[in-house]
Amino acid sequence: MTVVEAPSWAQPILKFLVSRELPADEILARQVQRRAVAYTIVDRELVRRSVTGVFQRCVEPDKGIAILRDIHQGECGHHTASKALVAKAFRHGYFWSTALDDAKELVRKCKGCQCFSSKQHMLASAIKTIPLPGRLPYHRPSNAQVERENGFILSGIKPRLVEPLEHSADC
Ligand SMILES: [Zn+2]
Predict the structure, then answer these.
(1) Can you give the pLDDT at residue 155?
(2) Could you tell me if 10 and 46 are in contact, meaning their C-beta atoms sit under 8 angstroms apart?
(3) Model's pTM, two decimal places?
(4) Per-residue confidence at 166, pLDDT binned at 50, 70, 90?
(5) Domains in the chain, number
C-alpha cells in the first residue's frame, strides 16, 4: 500500500478513500463518506477539490493559521475579515477543516484589527467613545447583526438549529 500524506483531521477521509474503512459510529461514518466525495489522491498526497474546481492541499491547522496570518496582515494594513480570509486561503490552494473557526479566532485576537487603517486608527483612538458609523470592522457585530441574532431567538429558532448549518459550511 502506498503511503499517502494527510493531516490528522483528514485521516478518516484518507482511510475511507484508500481502504473503504469507515468509523464505527454511524453518524461519523456518513459524514466521512459525504465529505470524501470532494477528495482525491494526487502524487501520494490527499487533495480536496473546491466547488470552484481548485485543487487544495490539505494542511494541518498550524500551517493553515500561519497562512491566514500572512494574508490577514499582508495587505498593507488592510485587515481582512474572517470569511474573506478563509476564501483567500482556499483560493490559494489550501484546505483544513477548522479554517473558519481559526480565522475568526485570529481576527478576534488581532490587535491591529482595533483599527482598519493607520489614519483611522488615530481618529478612532481620539474619539474612542464615539461609535464610528457604517464602517466598523467585520468581526464586530453590527447593530443589524445583533438585531438579526435577537430576531432568531424571538422567532423561536434555537441557536442549535443554526449551528449545524454553519458547521456544514466548513466542510
Ligand atoms: Zn487584524
Answers:
(1) 47
(2) yes
(3) 0.61
(4) very low
(5) 2
pLDDT score, position 143: 65
Residues 29 and 65 in one domain: no
Measure 70 CA to ligand 1 centroid, in angstroms. 11
Q: Ligand 1 center to residue 58 CA distance, Å?
A: 25
- Going from the Cα of 16 to the center of ligand 1, the distance in angstroms, rounded, reads 38
Q: What is the pLDDT of residue 79?
A: 83
Q: Using the mean position of ligand 1's atoms as its centre, give its distance from the Cα of residue 147 in Å.
A: 25
Residues 72 and 125 in one domain: yes
Structural domain including 48 reads 1-58
Report pLDDT digits (tens) over 29-51. Answer: 999 999 999 999 998 999 999 88
CA 78 / ligand 1 centre spacing (Å) = 8
Cα(158) to centroid(ligand 1), Å: 31
Q: Is residue 160 part of a domain?
A: no
Ligand 1 centroid–CA 88 distance in Å is 15
Exposed e or buried b per residue across 52-84, where buried means at least 16 C-beta atoms within 10 angstroms of its C-beta = eeeebbbbebeebbebbeebbbeeeeebbbbee
pLDDT at 93: 95
User: What backbone torsions phi and psi does residue 57 show, to the nearest 5 degrees?
Assistant: -75, 130
